[in-house]
């Protein structure tokens, strides 16, 4: 190793280091950091901004409109690259950094790599209190940046330039670790950013990273295979980890060899094509009758790459109480849930290790396939135009018929995750991003922008298609402008049901009257309709409003042919437009005491299903 040094500021050293980190993907060497999203303020413009100016060709900086949406875009970028590449977000001290908290939580919940480089108060404290500083009278070291400890996998505050020699490799190791993947947060005091240090030149040598492929303990494999051999009604739950581990082929081969039916989680929604004979459909609260039908009868469940959240498990009522679970997961925490027999390791290696002579009973597989055929018939009718007032399902059906198989579909919290999960027919592997790990409204358009940045680097001729409701649109829409500004075309469907209609549905289903969710039922407001077409057009997008599914089809064709972002608006019914089948039980807190008979009855009805709930055994 050379003893030579180079004198750089802390900020310059951080950027030079990132600029020299690479990863090989499909034989192509790429920078592991694809660039960043930034909004400058006094806490990051003078030093970090100076360093970033000199690497614009290799670490492009996308100007954000809102720090939270920058974080969403970075998370979607990481999803598109299957966690093999990441983006950084830089925000100024104070409210700019605080705005990143929600997106950091989203990345944490979804196990996604995002690097946050955020300004901080002066280490010397000589000018304290400074603009946007929060003062804690009994602890001068405590500030906004400490809030990120709860939503980061790696957290550090740089108090001396030399510290990044240890901190940056540790942050990257965390973000690229399959078991510990998540956001890394580095607090950068404004004075420390500009302090200089004689860094060893070797620190900036080019490094090519690789994602670790952890093999399972063979005794765990033996135990799991022995349990599988006892199965008369086996089932595979395929989660998002299947794609992150590159195990789609191994999953398909394992299922075909054994004849075991496969169901998908929301994150694993595009692990298999919709017409694969062993794909029995999405499972859980936003699932399908077919998947839920076999789940309640399965005796051995292989949970592959899933964290088994409540929408997958029906709040742990979807499975028989005596069903045995084999947890195949690179993360020990997820592999051991609900007394699972854990097989900790890379999904591809684990599935290959479990391959043997086991065959699922043909009558069980046939039963599962018959249930899927019934579900397919329901979906075909559900998405059919004119079957009822305008609905999410009809819009989904139109897009599904007209899109390219490799187009990217993006949706998030509200009613659309359930509707996309239930009704979308997967045309190609890894083409669906339904953000439901943190269930975060506002992700859709920002996430679409981040996904499009990633998509344009490998599949520039394909489209990113965003489904969003009017509520999410109003919450966060400024990245329509970002997409136009950066030339990253999106197709955005704004499906307007007059408010937070899915929460209104939950409100009604639990016996409550409509209140403060639909615009029409907001007591402190005079309802009026937002002109989403005019609003989107004002941000530079092509925009039009359609009256029905037939007009939507023609507008979608125009959007496909366009060379910039298009926004298509359609009203959908708030009450009659929902998918009514496919739902598992979901535990929500309901009032045990109420003056309303309807609320009391709903509480009794909800509690009547509780005896089915597994208690962790």
Describe this structure in words.
This is 3D-(3,5/4)-trihydroxycyclohexane-1,2-dione acylhydrolase (Decyclizing). Keywords: Thiamine pyrophosphate, Transferase. Belongs to the TPP enzyme family. Residues 37-132 form the Thiamine pyrophosphate enzyme N-terminal TPP-binding domain. The structure is a single chain. The chain is an alpha/beta fold and 617 residues long. Helix content is 36%, strand content 18%. The chain contains 24 helices and 23 strands. The chain has a six-stranded parallel sheet with strand order 5-4-6-7-9-8, with helices on both faces. Strands 14-13-12-15-16-17 form a six-stranded parallel sheet, sandwiched between helices. α3 (67-80) packs parallel to α5 (101-109), α16 (392-402) crosses α17 (416-423) and α16 (392-402) crosses α23. It starts with a strand and ends in a 10-residue tail after the last helix.
Helix run count: 24
Gyration radius from CA atoms, angstroms: 25 Å
CATH architectural arrangement of the largest domain: 3-Layer(aba) Sandwich
Strand content: 15-25%
What is the CATH level 1 assignment of the largest domain? Alpha Beta
- Report the major sheet: 6 strands, parallel
Provide the number of structural domains. Answer: 3
Helix content: 25-40%
Structural class: alpha/beta
Residue stretches low in confidence (pLDDT < 50, at least 5 long) are none
- The tally of strands reads 23
Order of strands in the sheet with most strands: 5-4-6-7-9-8
Mean pLDDT: 96
User: What is CATH's topology name of the largest domain?
Assistant: Rossmann fold
